[in-house]
Each structure stands twice: as C-alpha cells, then as structure tokens.
Amino acid sequence: MENSKRLQKIPPYLFAEISRKINAAKERGVDVISLGIGDPDLPTPEPIVKRMQEAVTDAANHQYPAYEGSKEFRQAVADWYQRRHNVSLNPDTQVLTLIGAKEASLHLCLGFVNPGDYTLCPDPTYTPYRTGTWFAGGEVHNMPLLEKNGFLPDLNAIPQDVREKSKIIFVNYPNNPTGAVANEEFYKGLIDFARDNNLIVASDNPYSEIGYDGYKPLSFLEVPGAMDVGVEFNSLSKYYNMTGWRLGMAVGNEDVIAGMATVKSNIDSGQFTAVQQAGITALNMPDSYYDDVTRVYQQRRDVMIEALRAIGLVPHVPKSALYVWCRVPEGHTSASFAELVLEKAGVVVGPGAGYGDAGEGFFRISLTVPDERLREAAKRIEESLK
Ligand SMILES: *Cc1c(COP(=O)(O)O)cnc(C)c1O
Asked: Which of 165, 173, 251, 316 is the least buried, fewest Cβ under 10 Å from its Cβ?
C-alpha cells in the first residue's frame, strides 16, 4: 500500500516512538521510570467521576451529541473564562467543544490554510501545529524559541515574504516543552503583528491554571484586541487529570470558531454528552482546587530541580506547565543522552530534538510521577553518567 504524499511527509508521532521504547525495555524486565510523556498520574477528582457515573445512565445522553457541544457545557466554559480570566465569551458563537485540544490545530488548518500557505510554528514545539499544517497542504515556518529570548519567538526575525504567505501563528504559553511563560507585553506585540500581517493567532493554553511561586498564567484573550485576531485552545486534560476523557475547548474570534465548527461537523460527531456533563462539574471545581494541584507539581518541580543541579546539570526553573527543560551534559546530543539514560538507568526523558531542531542540546522531564520516583530517576541518571 502506498501512503499518500501527505502522510509520507508526517514523521511518526514522537510519543508513539517513546512508548515503543518503553514497552521494549519493560519486556526486558527493566523497572522503567517514564518522565517522557506529560500525562498526569493523579486520578480525576471524585466529584467528576461521580457525575460521569450518573450521566452515563441517562438515556438522553445515548444519542448523538450536538456537534458544537452541549449548550450547558459551552455556557460553563464561558462562565469559567469569566471567573478565572475575566474574559467574556458568547457561548453560542465564541465557544466550540473539542474532543481534546490536540485536534484543534488540524481543524484550524483545514479551515484556514490553502495548499502552499504558511503557518508560523514554534521550534521546539508541541508537534500537532506542524502536522496539522502539513495535513492541510501548508508549509511550516519555524520560529526558534531561544534561551536568550526567554523561549519567546522573535517576531521581527520573520522574513517579509514569509509573513505575506502566512495564515496562522501558533503560540503556546505556558510552554510545552520549555516551561517558559509569556507576559502581556509579548501578547500585545503578537496582536499587533497578527493585525499587521493578517494572521490568525492560535494560542494553545492547556496549562493556564497551573502557576508556581504565586505566578498566574494569562489567557491570551485577556489582552485587548485578542478577540479580533485569534482563538485560544484550552483543555480539561492537565489540571483536572482528565487526559483520557478527551475534552477541551476552542474559544475566541467568531469567524475562526465558525470555520472550525464546520470542519469538525464534517469529520466527527462531537464528544459524548455524558463526558461534557462531567466536564461541567470539573469547570465548577472551587478555586482552591487549582492551588492543591499546583502544590503537588511545585513540590515535584523543586525535587527535580534540586536533584538535577546536584548532579551538575543546568535545568530551567519553570513557572508553570508540567515540565523541566534542561541542557544535556557536555559531549551529548539530546538523542544520545536520552538513549544513554534509557539503556543504563531505565529512565525515559524527552529528547529535545524530538520537538524540533532548536530543541537540540536539551531534554524534557515530565513531572507526572511521584516525588520518590523523581528522586530515584535522578539517582539513576547520576549513576549512568559516571
Ligand atoms: C497536553 C497538551 C495538549 C493536549 O490536550 P488534549 O486536550 O489532551 O488533547 C495540547 N497542547 C499542549 C501544548 C499540550 O501540552
């Protein structure tokens, strides 16, 4: 069978590769500590699970859901954005329910990118922005996220001819994989840049409720003018420990939301209404809930930073997200280091180059395992470097 040219262009999904390596090591009897994938280990909070148990027995939920998501879920999203970020949204025109935020990049590209058009994507990056572009027949212009710029893209460095051919600029702060955050000034510049160059801003923000040391991440939509130029993707996956449930939202500019909704209604039939009802319970968790989740990850962050420094490595200290981004030791590439720690220490880390060329020289650690396992992982990494 010959794959389409489109599919031939797509590399295997990074985490599918990592999963394969983990399974192979486990089969050899290795006690693998996986710090490779950002998948919260804590269970979904009980009130959400309870709500799901009720919802699943309701026969009214057993039919096709509404394509754009239930009115109640979209209203809950609007209320949540108002309460948590002081952003006003019309649930009928500015909110679209997603089967997880991952799918949104593809839908956006299918709705707004013509063959030959460009998108502007961060490098290193969460990969669906790129692959979504390619599936739509578009080309990717990488914006390197450099340490010296605080892992923010340098918009001035984007050539004029690329700007003219570009339709979408993807940004993701708090950032996966670097853990960097963006302030209002950055977003103001981004909004001006988008307006000047006729671009849609896609702000992917699934870590918006996690902030360490008192830091509070912004929604892009909090910044004046954002609604004119863009959308934000958010997700219930990370801060409610609901990655398996597949529930997220796109919010913001009406025209963009309408285009994405048309694409989606022709591809999928929406998320199970019962999952959306449980999602409403999640969105109504008390504000103190986010502090509790944040405390767990902040403690893990501190454990990992201390352990990495103790073995002479140089990690970046994140203010949000679930990752530590760290330089590989001298003499290693990101791939050779990831290989070494898997083979000699049974520890899985994300090789920086897997997130893009500009990720070379770094590795990513996910804070989605308990403190003891993080300490054990650091100890084993230390041994493997001797
Ligand atoms: C985890 C993650 C997502 C995925 O969200 P889902 O709702 O689980 O699909 C999207 N974007 C980034 C940057 C992520 O890290």
From this structure: 165
Given the CA of residue 236, which atom of ligand 1 is nearest to it? 7
Q: How far is the CA of 102 from the centre of ligand 1 (A)?
A: 5
* pTM metric for this prediction: 0.96
Residue 28 Cα to ligand 1 midpoint, Å, equals 31
pLDDT in tens, 190-216: 999 999 999 999 999 999 999 999 999
CATH topology of domain 5-43+288-385: Aspartate Aminotransferase, domain 1 (3.90.1150)
Work out the pLDDT band at 260, boundaries 50, 70, 90: very high
CA of 196 to the centre of ligand 1 (A): 29
Q: How far apart are CA 341 and CA 333, in angstroms?
A: 12
Q: Of 39, 96, 102, 240, which is best to mutate to test ligand 1, by the most ligand atoms within 8 angstroms of its C-beta?
A: 102
Give CATH 3.90.1150.10 domain extents, the chain: 5-43+288-385
Q: Which of 314, 304, 319, 295 is nearest to 365 (CA)?
A: 304
Pocket of ligand 1 (CB under 6 A): 38, 100-102, 126, 172, 176, 204, 206, 235, 237-238, 243, 248
Does position 273 have pLDDT exceeding 90, yes or no?
yes
Q: From ligand 1's centre to the CA of 332, what distance in Å? A: 29
**CA 231 – CA 147 distance, rounded (Å):** 27
Ligand 1 atom nearest to CA at 102: 9
Percent of the chain with pLDDT over 90: 90
Q: What are the tens digits of pLDDT across the range 49-87?
A: 999 999 999 999 999 999 999 999 999 999 999 999 999
Question: How far is it, in rounded angstroms, from Cα 239 to Cα 52?
Answer: 18
237 CA: nearest ligand 1 atom: 8
User: Ligand 1, closest atom to CA 238?
Assistant: 1
Separation CA 341–CA 385 (nearest Å): 8
Positions of CATH 3.40.640.10 in the chain: 46-285
Q: Where do we find the tokens 């004119």?
A: 228
Yes or no: is domain 46-285 CATH 3.40.640.10?
yes
